[in-house]
Amino acid sequence: MSTQKLRIGIIGAGRIGQVHAQTVAFRLPEGEVVAITDMKREAAQALADRCNIPRVAESAAALLEDSQVEAVLICSSTDTHAGLIEQAAQAGKHIFCEKPIAHSLEKIDRALAAVKAAGVQLQIGFNRRFDANFARVRHAVSSGEIGAPRLLHIVSRDPAPPAPEYVRISGGMFMDMTIHDFDMARFLIGDEVEEIYVTGGVMVDEAIGREGDLDTALTVLRFRNGVIGTIDNCRQAAYGYDQRVEILGSEGKIATENCYPNQAVISGGNSVYRDVPLNFFMDRYTESFATELHSFVSSIREGRPTEVTGIDGRIPVVMALAARRSYDEHRPVRLDEIDVGGGEPEPDGHAARLCPQT
Amino acid sequence: MSTQKLRIGIIGAGRIGQVHAQTVAFRLPEGEVVAITDMKREAAQALADRCNIPRVAESAAALLEDSQVEAVLICSSTDTHAGLIEQAAQAGKHIFCEKPIAHSLEKIDRALAAVKAAGVQLQIGFNRRFDANFARVRHAVSSGEIGAPRLLHIVSRDPAPPAPEYVRISGGMFMDMTIHDFDMARFLIGDEVEEIYVTGGVMVDEAIGREGDLDTALTVLRFRNGVIGTIDNCRQAAYGYDQRVEILGSEGKIATENCYPNQAVISGGNSVYRDVPLNFFMDRYTESFATELHSFVSSIREGRPTEVTGIDGRIPVVMALAARRSYDEHRPVRLDEIDVGGGEPEPDGHAARLCPQT
Amino acid sequence: MSTQKLRIGIIGAGRIGQVHAQTVAFRLPEGEVVAITDMKREAAQALADRCNIPRVAESAAALLEDSQVEAVLICSSTDTHAGLIEQAAQAGKHIFCEKPIAHSLEKIDRALAAVKAAGVQLQIGFNRRFDANFARVRHAVSSGEIGAPRLLHIVSRDPAPPAPEYVRISGGMFMDMTIHDFDMARFLIGDEVEEIYVTGGVMVDEAIGREGDLDTALTVLRFRNGVIGTIDNCRQAAYGYDQRVEILGSEGKIATENCYPNQAVISGGNSVYRDVPLNFFMDRYTESFATELHSFVSSIREGRPTEVTGIDGRIPVVMALAARRSYDEHRPVRLDEIDVGGGEPEPDGHAARLCPQT
Amino acid sequence: MSTQKLRIGIIGAGRIGQVHAQTVAFRLPEGEVVAITDMKREAAQALADRCNIPRVAESAAALLEDSQVEAVLICSSTDTHAGLIEQAAQAGKHIFCEKPIAHSLEKIDRALAAVKAAGVQLQIGFNRRFDANFARVRHAVSSGEIGAPRLLHIVSRDPAPPAPEYVRISGGMFMDMTIHDFDMARFLIGDEVEEIYVTGGVMVDEAIGREGDLDTALTVLRFRNGVIGTIDNCRQAAYGYDQRVEILGSEGKIATENCYPNQAVISGGNSVYRDVPLNFFMDRYTESFATELHSFVSSIREGRPTEVTGIDGRIPVVMALAARRSYDEHRPVRLDEIDVGGGEPEPDGHAARLCPQT
């Protein structure tokens, strides 16, 4: 039976590479990791030992030459993503790549062209689409349970700010953090944003400001279909990871609460309380990481498009660029100011892909 | 003991006049209504009968000449507010006036000048400040319970849209509906807004659009102290009246839920559910109407400034004008574009008034 | 119009007398208090001043002779209830009497016989039936929303124990505190209890034990229709007044939460919390006191039976006696062991009365 | 590294055997299944294929002779548990056994004696102790967070009744279903029950009654330390699996809610609702199954007592027998009526074991 498993290679043995390696090893019977590589060979070896991965490749190039490997998970640093997508596509491997593909549209478009030319599958790691809460919200929209959507609110706050050194290479808050929320907005509403307006500032850590970045922002989205949305981002929430959405529709609203380590409520002399939410994405989105890989493997084994395509990876980058320009120029910015051509549309049409049967 | 009661006259026996008359009659031992008037005499008479009000005056002017009357509640239509404030002030009566004072700053400033000249007290009917939920949020901010505020969200949605004829005379959504939220924003944060950006449209009823108004809007506020806020308004929420706020601070957040007719939760075969929220402001804000009148009467009897002054009535009108301009011109608008002089500051300073001891 | 108001006399100007006097004066347009009396004349006078009551009667007897008085509210100490019901009935007054009628069935039966002979109306002060939460639960049962009831749980805990001196004259926890829950159980299920089993003890205050009473008890009820119920009583809950019910039916369950002073939730560094529930019955049941008097006055003005009759006052006393015997003898006790005859049934049948159309 | 993994044999490839096999294969890096057996060989083979188990043994006896096997998981039918424990102990294997050990104390005591004589470890499958909700409640009790416990309530209702054929061999509701709650009661309070009283009946399915069993019961527990508890059991809850506890202590209370598939709340025109709870134990207790095996493997690798010992498996059986007798004889029954000797105490004392450092 193991010959039917999808044979996977992993590039990058850092935090997210470890998550994916363990998922495949311990929670994904339909796949197996046959090779891994990392610039730090010891990191790759340690993960291989833990997850029974038979081969530690010398380099990404070596891994991509391995004929055993049918699909690769690109878990290396962002600056390597686009190049590795190109190489993997040329090697005929199906590709799962962490977000963002790149910080520039030129790199992204070259990578997507290579994927198209090679005819391989590509899935971008927007894992939150696979979270039970957000999937339930998407279902409420696509099924008409709340009628036509009117207003969307996304709250996405981290428990603690990153180190300034990380901020420096992150591409900025919009590219690093809000990008998940840009994807979420498109996914939930099932339509495209045409204009963005940002108000924001540095409220958490002045060192972040010295890197030229923000740590707190309120982003307003206007969709083509008239829906208005907001994204509330802050690099620090004293009570932990805050990840919620709310949509008002013509027939009702749907709103999600955070996820908690337990459902116990204590009533004491001064207050009625519960423990704070799950602290960060490794705990909060555990299941979604497994579900997205399951979806990726299923897509490839069944020969159908992935649920988060290359275009889904490209558009949030356009949105991040527009958000930054809005902040810099203090005015609403249309996406077509950033992306004059608008990228190459996919043959099967966009709206249909965003609104699967539910 | 009845001679110590504050003797009140009421101008206007419509919906809000009835609320206040009944509050004074049945829930406010420290006050009594001694006269009432309405353009429809029968309406005034019916309310007088129900609430044991001894005199139905021929006109507002006649009521204001009544030496028995120490204070008036102005509950007539908005276009009469500013003029009646002037006349009442000149007659030496303390004044409680429903919001908004007027749609133009000129009228407001003339009314406030008359109040100042007469040395009487003026309270504006922003009743929501006296609601237990929002008072708790204000307390959390002013006491430092959540640290320094960073982001504010106000959701304020009506159960059903008004008739187009009402829209025509309402002054528009910002002046009629959002004005409560503008006051709430200032009250909760304890600072002034300096810039407003609006995205909105007609999503509920095209007849509202034909009147030149919006029915759905997302308003972004930037406060002088850097806080960023949003106001989410919609003239229709299928599930009833939606009135919530949330503030993120440096040490935590506070968020309020809606108020419900009961605390029962039913678990059935298909869902776990409860009854929808209290439907509209008469049910939702019942207690706050009583509390605001109690505060007004106490302020006068104790000779101290009211909790919602004339300036508190003026600034939200400036905000409503800025919001409309932002919508029309599709750009962020500073309040000082609307209000070049900024109104006359009060002698005792603004911040102190906004941040009472708690 | 004031001649149509029901003219009420109040016997007793203590805590609950004050509640009722203020309700009639300020919240009940269809009634008016025309006379009040109390053994402490100053207490009666103070309340008369506050609520504009024109007459302070010398004694209960004098008040009952007042031909102006159409109905009396008996708010004096429990040991006087049964005798005053008899006298009021003989004077032809309609009667509202606080619970319990008496601690002995002999006294109760003599009082109820006098009421029957006089043909006056009697309502017992089980105010919780008129609370929005419990009324919603009753509706779920009577409308079939949760199917046929199977299991009932009542939690009824006080914020702090009474003084030992009060315990001494209270009739014991079952007669003083649980009696409300006995009524609630009958009201919610719409059927009669046939057997009671109690486990309990002294966990809060040993002084209560020295008075021969319990402070914590778990009472099991078995209804004639097979439903099984529990009542959880404790004289002390650190977090305040805890008043909840839950019913499991064949088609679902309904459960009520406590009532809180506001709906704000704060997320801090260590916990997500809200303020503790409303502290005690004066705050928690405010509305139900007004609603029960409204119901009483309406019943009399409309000439129909009250919603809480004399039998509804009698049966919980039988239950309290059975509960105490179960505790003393450490075995389940049938109600017909206590009440051999079972009281005189009402002509219109019992179940029908308990299950009004909803 | 694989030589350091604990080598496990599984007896029984039914529903719970499958759960444990998959847990070890995919979620428990510190263990591996080296052999499996089942009376239906195909079932064992299919599970072996899925989980990469190298050996399918002919019989339990053959598996127990396998020197590779260090520990066994007994997942076969209840009537085989005690005998297999004896045999496994004699073969020197550490043992994890599903609950209950047996329906008779004689069988249990013989099995426990064999375990003791062999010096092997034994853990009983009371997985709910490892659930995050109940572990949090236990922590609140053991840490003093809610003070000294006074009242305990356990609600434990199944979504749908079992087939009558299952009821026939189940040992009855107390032995099959309530036994988990008996364990939970001891675990949460950290003390032993001394008396049980049951009221119950057949409310769900008369076929269950024809098998001589109940389907609905309210069990009252009196603990040695004075705490009073209830267990609410019903074989049917229209809304799904209902698993909650509440404890009132001298300083507060703690209560748990059910677990839901997502945290989304929808507000519609008629109600505010969410999806029903996770439907049954396979979904609700997924994590606890993994955690209990992790604990078992850790205990053995570290040479310390398991967290749920043989005595913990024995006492709930005594409680189930007492509960049934109480129901049959309609009176409170002391546990020492059932278990005259009380079983052999463990050398390290009981309370200490029940109250681990937290």
Query: Biggest interface and which pair forms it?
Result: A-D, 36 and 36 residues
> Which regions of chain A have little confidence, pLDDT < 50, spanning 5+ residues?
345-358
Radius of gyration of chain A: 20 Å
Counted by DSSP, the helix tally of chain A is 14
Strand order of the largest sheet of chain A: 12-11-7-10-9-8-15
Oligomeric assembly: homotetramer
Our estimate of the beta-strand percent of chain A is 15-25%
Order of helices and strands of chain A: EHEHEHEHEHEHEHHEHEEEEEEHHHEHH
The total beta strand count of chain A reads 15
Give the distance, in angstroms, between the N- and C-terminal Cα atoms of chain A.
32 Å
Q: What structural class is derived from the secondary structure elements of chain A?
A: alpha/beta
Mean pLDDT of chain A: 93
Describe the structure.
The structure is a homotetramer of 358-residue chains. Chain A has 358 residues and is an alpha/beta fold. Chain A contains 14 helices and 15 strands. In chain A, the strands form three sheets. Chain A has a seven-stranded mixed β-sheet with strand order 12-11-7-10-9-8-15. The first copy, chain A, has a six-stranded parallel β-sheet with strand order 3-2-1-4-5-6, with helices on both faces. Chain A starts with 5 loop residues before the first strand and ends with a helix. Mean pLDDT of chain A is 93; it is low at 345-358.
